[in-house]
Amino acid sequence: MTSPPINEKEFASFIRQHSRIINKVSYFYATPKLPFDDLRQEIYINLWLGLKNFRGDSKVSTWVYRVAVNSALMALRSTGRKVETVDMDLASLEMSTELDDAQRENLQALHSLINRLEEIEKAIILLWLDEFQYEEIAETLGMKRNTVATKIHRIKEKLSKTI
Questions:
Q1: I need a labelling partner for 127 at 20 to 30 A (CA). Which of 27, 62, 67, 101 fits?
Q2: 0.85 cut: is pTM over it?
Q3: In sequence order, what are the residues at sequence separation of 6 or more whose Cβ sits closer than 8 angstroms to the Cβ of residue 4?
Q4: Residue 101, burial from CB neighbour count under 10 angstroms (0-12, 13-18, 19+)
């Protein structure tokens, strides 16, 4: 597989193609001290800087997830605070489909539940909800497959207890 494009025009297209991943990670990791737009910008910068080093050992979407999650975790650590829940207007996510009130309510409830998780748990469950296989999650987050399976089981238990 060849390396993704790195000129500005192609990068803009690359960002549009992977905006769903970038927006989702930004949305779920945003805090009052690290707003959605700032976090998304940080991810863009890290993707731009990292593209020249992408070797194609994994799918591009897996690499984008890895960069996005790592960018979010590093940005949160640099703020010196634990992850906080933040209410956010879902309209700012530039979603391609309109949400009805029930879908919006369900998404907000899911956001609230996921924001109660630890940083790495949040990354794991977001990938799992996007239907990544355990092996892909392990590769994206630099874990072993069995560790991912165990953590997903524990996360499900944790979430079911909070419902």
A1: 101
A2: no
A3: 10, 14, 51, 54, 60
A4: exposed
